Amino acid sequence: MRFSKIFLFLGLFLTTAGLAAQVVGKATKGAFLLKNATIETVTKGTVKGDLLIQDGKITGIGTSVNAPADAKVIDCTGKFVYPGFIDGGTNLGLVEVSSVSLTDDASEIGDIKPFLSSLTAVNPSATAIPVTRVSGVTTVLTKPTGGLIPGTASLINLVGYSPTEMYAGYQAMQMNFPSSGARGRWDRRSEEDRKKDEDKKLKEINDLWAETKLFASISAAKAKDPSIRQTYNPTLEAMAPVVDGSMALMIEVDRDKDILSALKWIKENKVNAVLSGCAEGWRVAKEIAEAKVPVITGPVISIPTRQSDRYDQSYTNPGILAKAGVQVAIRSNNTENVRDLPFHAGFAAAYGMGRQAALEAITIVPARIMGLEKELGSLEVGKTANLFICDGDPMETKTQIEQVFIQGWEIPMNSRHSLLYDEFLERSPGVKN
Amino acid sequence: MTKQLARWLSPLLLFLPLLAAGQGERPPVTNAYFIQNAIVVQQPGTVLEMGGVIIRDGLIQAVGKNLKAPADAKVLEGDSLYVYAGFIDGLSNVGIPKPKEETGRPEVKDPGNPPNAIAGIQPERSAADMVDASDKSVEELLALGFTAAHVVPYGSMLPGQGAIILLGGRGQTGAVYRPESSFFSQFEGSRGVYPATTMAIMAKWRELYLQAKQSKDHSARYSSAARGMARTAYDETLEAFYPVIDGKQPVFFAVENVKDVFRALGLAKEMGFQLALANADHVEPALADIKASKTPLFLSLDLPEEKKKEEKKEGSSGSDSTRTTPTPTIDTKMEERRAAAQRMFEEQAAAVAKAGVSFGFSTLTAKSKDIRANLGRMIKAGLTEDQALAALTTAPAALLGLSDVMGTVEKGKIANLVVTDKPYFAEGSNVRYVIVDGVPKEYEAKKKKKASDPNAKVSAVGTWSITVDVPGQTTTSVLEITGTADDLSGTITAEGETRQLSGVSLSGDALTFTSQFSAGGQNLTLSFDLTVDGDSLDGSVQVGSFGTFDVEGSRTSKPDRQ
Amino acid sequence: MKRYLHLLTLLLASLALGAQTPTGSVHIKNGTVLTITNGVLTEADVVVENGKITGVGKSLRTPAGAKVIDATGQFVMPGIIDAHSHIALDAVNEATNPVTAEVWTGDVLDPFDISIYRALAGGVTAAHAMHGSANAIGGQCETIKLRYGTYNPEDLKMQGAPRTIKFALGENPMRVHGEGNRILPRTRMGVEHVFRQAFSEAKDYMAAQESYQKKKASDPTAVAPKYDYRMETLADILRGEIIIHCHSYRADEILMLLEVCKDFGIKRLVFQHTNEGFKVAPELAEFGAMASVFADWWAYKFEVYYSTAYNAAILTRNGVVTSINSDSEDYIRHLYHQAGKTQRYGQLTDDEALRLITLNPAIQLGIDARVGSLEKGKDGDIAIFSAHPLSIYAVPQMTIVDGIVRFDIKADDNDMRLSVDPEKTEDMMLEYAVEHRCMEGVEGHAAHHH
Q: Biased-composition ranges for Low complexity (chain B) (predicted)?
């Protein structure tokens, strides 16, 4: 693809068109027929045949798909088609350059701020978005960070020019669960002080929960009797759908003891919860499975949580959780390198999870956790056309992702990274003499 | 100091400076002393049963059987006392007033090139100039039987030169035995300025050493033929290195771990100076190098806090029984490894002894109150009592070049002795006299606290009259305990002042509680540890860092019904 | 003859006294051998005797006492080399001065660091334990072999490896000294001045030394210039005895250092990170400077915003000797995977990709005569994988250093620490994943700025 003459010509055209050549180009909509492909549906096995995209949906899969005459035919002989990968935890679109604080829209001031919505601050032109989607990651949950309740995370498709256009139909309130663990070696608080801090935070959450319930009942009463006064309270208003269970609460928690206390708290308050992080999930896998709380774990490629842990503990964590019966999705927990998501899954696959479960953990499982299994996460007729064509196993680094479709849009296979490659592989002018 | 505390503890606090000052203002009646019918451990392995020691004018005049008490000698009372050579501390800050702790980075214009004082490079300073015999650290160590110490200044990379001092020696002149006995260094960076890391300390060491060699050579040449030669620059820092370069002064390196041991050995080898390793806690992997280089070694008397077994509730999860993943096994293994690490430190002394390396001890980072217990832990871990005694007496004397005058109970040596009522390392042994420079100091024998019985059924409720036994002074106060066995509270009243007790707990017959005093921004805790037996109790109270004192008491009234 | 015997005795004595490198013998049988320099041999053996490779080929004989390892179905490659690491160090930055050429990480090696074992479990056998990037001229670095199990820091050193030194351009030295201490450099102009000043002063120092050496014999009043360890080190750089490894990101600052080095006659130069190296690949190639890069890190700070994951491919195609490094206690465990990314981003061949983590870093560290490929006479540093190491599904099975097995997946257990806290068992630190130590030791600066 990149070496094709057409591409080189295009690259030349772009560079001669001006120095601001670093634009990735436009997406194209229409009908597309992916012919002769090996289609990895994820949920319905492997199909050898064609796949038809129309109006943003998958409208046909099989050996005899009837395509309209104007459909663009893409020969996929020897190629594979996979559903677009879903990353269940990123800051994509919210953070541009992490060390430049004014480009960080993920971390707001304050501790409890459920009224913040990440969707508001998603920058559709973030440089990392094209970088991510050309890797086959089509859909990401982007989340605010910091404090006890950072705000709501939103699922976005990586195509479009406004957050609303990108919104993929799922939001979840974020919570960083209180912990009595030391933050790092520099944390000089005594064990008792850490426990006190944890208890204090837990109390804050429980108070918030109780206040929200009262607030909701006053709201309900007011609906019947408009004379009832209720003052503006954005915090409780935002918490109401979480407390009544209509919005999921995504609880970030890593340490084994904290996971157990989170599970206890979830049970006591009958929370519609998802656990995220869960780096030490393997230590309490059975309890998580019994609680039937789904987990979005990752990054998989990371160091173990303790010096004494086995060297591969972070790699084996998703597999151990899955084997214990936990519903596990894998995330990158990254911003600029969300494109590594299939590699995180690949490591999980190699270290005990198995390839199929790892593949599901970045496709259908996150879709299920978010209640979007009818729209996303696999290649089935009627589902959103989030998918890509590649020349091999997409978890293998060697594999080239050749064409990505998101909501049926044929995505330009460019990003800052590929454009710089095109410009500098053979620099012109080069070195004088 | 609050009024309340002053009133409550006034006798105690008044007494403390007296303890340090020894005999007070009056000149002693005599300079001759006699210990009779004692078991004299002259040196490890050499024991004189039913022996006597005559001390005169600061020296041991005679040691032997059938000695007669000289007419002018004061006889030190006691039955079957044990006499040992006074202990020698191989490296510490005892008697050196602790400088005020500075917080934050010092204000320096150029942190890469700070003045030497801020950089912690002051080898020209001398501990001998800083010794304060009345510093409370002296009394703490003295009470354990230490009579001499190699002391060094506080500081960073090069805090200054060490001195041998006699503990309890009066004033600076009386205390200092030998000034400038060592050149002290440690891998201690200066916060935020050069040298901040061990990397820079190593580099600075090399540079200073080579500069000093150069300057020493230059000085020698200049003093013989100055005309036409650029003059030597006066540099007291570099001049302080000269005795080290000449091999006349050993470099004492305080080390924190076995990595530091290797680093110091490497640097000494590279530069060619005479090294002594001090305050080492782990040396086993380096023993071959230490032995080959004949490096004097002083092990730390600090040990990791003793833990019998990690409390169950601190396992990595609260529900061990229901887990499928093998974390209980992991937790068990973690605890095993922790315990093994603890053992490893306890076994160092025995391992060094076994390897045939002579060593002394250092109290630099040890808390005085832990030292005897730590010696006991080392003995339990395989160090023989003779080896322990050697490490406290003969070995440090030899390693510090003091064998002629200290380390054994022999005629002609300085009368530095420690006298106990049982063998020093035996359980319940009390130090009765510590003799420094021929001047004895008497210690009260601590009553043996009754072993508490966790299954005893007693009640603590009621009003008690208790006495706290401060040597020479006794205070009486009233203790009021109320409540039920599970929920006790109480007050303590002394000198008309009443304080609340906290943490009152009765477990079996063991009654414990604390009382707080706030004094000049400093919190002082009185921790009582008592055993109740019918209507009497006894035990001890720990008064902050001042020490532990015996407590006795009896019940003066009981509630009508229990 | 007598004289010869005397020499021999001396030699033996020096061996006995010097830091002895423990070595072993192994016979790896019937694997797919990725030699790097001589293609791929299937169903082949590698034999190591007393720490040195003595045979690579089919059906070799087992030397006496050698451990036999069956590699049937497995992949055997040279031990991976990380040209940029901060593992096994008790200190990383002496961040108190813009120039600290005299300090040396070889003085603060930490043999207890669990990262050493974890890196072995990723097939790594040697690493460049570098000073951090706080100073324009940082400290000298140490090339180590991952001889995990020793308590003696000295044992980690790869004896005979050339001296190297860390330099740093751009944001880090500007932030630490300019913003932090209000002293030069606060800008990239200032960074250049630091280099030119340091080297010029070193030249003056060398001249003074030289004039003293000339005068010494004839003039009894001659006095040697005051010994200056910093200047001595800088002089050694000018003499070509120390390889510069320079933390760098932007193309302009890379060109600046090339100019400085040209002006001072310095030839041995490796750029580290080199995120914008792709923009000046022809200049780097022309100079003969090398580049050690991340596979795909970018955008975590402003000076890496205009980066590309195709960097290694562009540099390689332009003839720059390139390596992929970790700069991380995490990434050092999967450099084989990082190298694999150059196949996604730039379609390097297997050989080209594997060179990035074997022979090329060895060349950059000046140790390519001893490690970096499976060849007779080289050190017995070997990694064995369950599948082709560039595959995402490859799991390292065994790692051998000097013929001694230092990692064996079958012998792996919980808790491989050498040093354990005697006072409490370990709990999880919430911020356990602070993995980048390039700026460690710099007060008030987050550790994640590479």
A: 316-331
Class of domain C23-79+372-410: mainly beta
Of A209-218, B126-135, B164-173, C139-148, minimum mean pLDDT range? B164-173
Domain annotation for chain A: domains and CATH numbers: 5-82+405-424 (2.30.40.10), 85-376 (3.20.20.140)
Q: Which CATH class is domain B90-99+118-223+233-308+329-406?
A: alpha beta
Q: How many CA atoms lie within 13 A of A31 on its CB side?
A: 13
ipTM above 0.90, yes or no: yes
**For chain B, where do the domains classified as CATH 2.30.40.10 start and end?**
31-85+407-445
User: How far is A368 from chain C, CA to nearest CA, in Å?
Assistant: 26
In angstroms, the CA C389 to CA C324 distance is 15
Give start-end residues of each CATH 2.40.128.120 domain in chain B.
1-27+448-562
pLDDT one-digit tens code per residue, A332-372: 999 999 999 999 999 999 999 999 999 999 999 999 999 99
Distance separating alpha carbons of residues B437 and B174, to the nearest angstrom: 9
DSSP 8-state assignment for residue B455: T
Contact between C221 and B330 using a beta-carbon 8 Å cutoff: no
With CB atoms and an 8 Å threshold, state whether C341 touches A397. Answer: yes
For B31-85+407-445, which CATH class? mainly beta
Which residues contact residue B115 at a Cβ distance below 8 angstroms, ignoring those fewer than 6 apart? Answer: B108
CB-based contact A348:A330 (threshold 8 Å): yes
- Interchain CB contacts (distance < 8 Å): A and B: 34
**How far is the C-alpha of C25 from the C-alpha of C65, rounded, in Å?**
7
Q: Where are the domains positioned within chain C?
A: 23-79+372-410, 80-369
Nearest Cβ partner for A320 among B322, B325, B334: B325
Closest-CA distance, B522 to chain A, in angstroms, reads 19
Residues in chain A: 433
Domain with CATH 3.20.20.140 in chain B: 90-99+118-223+233-308+329-406
Query: Which of A102, A188, A189, A420 has the most C C-beta neighbours within 10 Å, making it the best mutation to test the interface with C?
Result: A420
Residue C16 has pLDDT above 50, yes or no: no
H helices of B225-360, where? 236-239, 242-245, 258-271, 287-293, 327-354
Q: Nearest-5° angle of CA B50, CA B51, CA B56?
A: 150
Q: Are A284 and A260 in contact (CB under 8 A)?
A: yes
**B306 token code pair:** 């003793």
Query: How many Å lie between the alpha carbon of A238 and the closest alpha carbon of chain B?
Result: 33
| Residue A308 distance to chain B (closest CA, Å) | 8
Residue B485 pLDDT: 76
Is the Cβ of B310 closer than 8 Å to some Cβ of chain C? yes
Question: Do C308 and A420 count as a contact with CB atoms less than 8 A apart?
Answer: yes
Nearest to B285 among C96, C152, C427 (CB): C152
pLDDT value at position B322?
33
Residue of A254, A287, A305, A309 for testing the chain B interface, max B β-carbons within 10 Å: A287
Residues of C in contact with B211 (CB under 8 A): 226-227
The helices-and-strands tally (H runs, E runs) of chain B is 13, 25
Contacts of A324 in chain B (CB under 8 A): 324-325
- Name the minimum distance, in Å, from the CA of C165 to any CA of chain B: 14
CATH assignment, B1-27+448-562: 2.40.128.120
pLDDT tens digits along C97-118: 999 999 999 999 999 999 999 9
- Dist. CA B273–CA B269, nearest whole Å: 7
Chain C contact present for B288, CB below 8 A: no
Which homologous superfamily does the CATH classification assign to the domain defined by C80-369? Metal-dependent hydrolases (3.20.20.140)
Chain C CB contacts of B335 under 8 Å are 425
